[in-house]
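Dear support,

I submitted the protein below through the web form. The confirmation email said the job was done, but the results page showed an empty box. After a refresh the structure appeared. I'm attaching both so you can tell me whether what I see now is the final result or a partial one.
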Amino acid sequence: MTRFVALSLLSLAALAATPAQAQRAQIRPHIDVGQVLTADLQGGDVLTYSTVGAGIDVSMHSRRVEVQLSYNYQHRFSYDNATPDDDVHSGIAIVRARVTPGLTLEAGGMAVRGRTDIRGASPGNLSLSGNNRSQIYSAYAGPNLSTHVGPMFVNGAYRFGYTRVEAPRGGTGVPGTAIPLDIYDDSTVHVATASAGVKSGTILPIGITVSGAYTRENAGQLDNRFEGKYGRGDVVLPIGRGLAIAGGVGYEQIRITQRDALVVGGVVQRDANGRFITDPASTPRIAYDTDGLFWDAGVIWRPSRRTFLEARVGKRYGSWSYTGSLSYQIGPGSGLQVGVYDSVTSFGQQANGGVAALPTSFDTDSENPFQQNNSGCTFGNQGSAAGSCMNGIFASAATGNYRARGVTGVLVFNRGPNHLGFGGGYARRDFIAPAGPGVPGISINGTSDQTYYAQIFAARELGRSASISGNAFITMYDSDLPGSDTTMGWGANGAYTQRFFGHLEGTAAVGVYGYKAQGTDQLNAQGLVGLRYGF
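What the results page shows now:
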């Protein structure tokens, strides 16, 4: 699986780099070696290990093709029998190719390490062997159509996605007396959307849009099935320069089912990786089944091409719902992006959607030098696409479905040799699962968890041959599962990079990471010296 995803990430760029565009591409494969020292500032233990790795960075931006890929593979050789050797895959690949003026093909992929259990350990460096971290892969591909039929605009899109989570090594750091949770496996997702309408002032003073969507997900754990479809109509009424009021009403159907876990002697059975075993004799149980009307209304403000704001409030999923977005292009390389969301979804759907929302031009200098990449904020280097944060998604690879609500925002400043980024947000998940006295095993129905996070990044080029960079972050996780406790994680690191002879560069980095969870209070310091040779 790891080889397949790694090769897929590399292939995305190769497929897009047609001969006509290849001369405008920057393709930089590299090999890496390093030495890392880790010190437990409370227990006094000191560990050291060596790393050998390889990767590739690709950047191409033309009229028809946009590609950005940053992928790294690292193998760690440990000198301590208690800390086994390890492999880490980390990367992002985004490709958008315009086939015709109205047709675009998109593909993207991500390899990242994220947390397994929301209640467990929160290590600042997820690439290290330890508790509560899993290797995660997610990829998507599909076409997008945007055209006109007379005065009417017509849009359509299809996306196929796949997400895979490897079983955690070393446990999760959750006490054995706590309620055991299922461990995510994999899922496939199909999403199709379509819309048509006319803009205000084209035929009528108001704008009218009719849209619909269909989502189907098949998850490996307990044969979980998600099917959702909706249709809606929207009206936009301009009331002033750049200002309009908007409203919409729709009809929606969502049905979620899963089969039972196998129970023998009152004990839920698990496989070798700790995942629940599906009872082959069980029939699908309904976890969520709803259909009916929903509505929302709000304002749209677009005072200029650089600024857009939309905020809506309505009734959906049986309660009040709030959604919105804000984007502001401060300059060519600086901007602000904020999103407020509310949907019934799953980990696989969110991971795919998070990858699809990433910019095609992002700052690779924001990567953690100790290889905890991509599970936090990704900072864009264009003002029109500031970036996004995936902390709320990778807070834990949760099995099952849930209602996801939250807000996430990114602010970036890029000018000349200076790069600065801020990211933060809040995420809440209310879980949906079969409930009742006849359901065997562990049910998380009605439980919820919350994530708060913030991150800052800064980098500066020191002439043509050197650079410095730094990251700092803090996260807090909270769950209402019995026996759980608030978990906090934090960290900061800094790196200096010097380039020699054109192809060789050296990096020296230091970092400090800590977390507090389930009665454990840990604080570690790290140092790194590494070399990279680029071809």
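Response: this is the final, complete result; the empty box was a page-load delay. The two ends are 27 Å apart (CA to CA).
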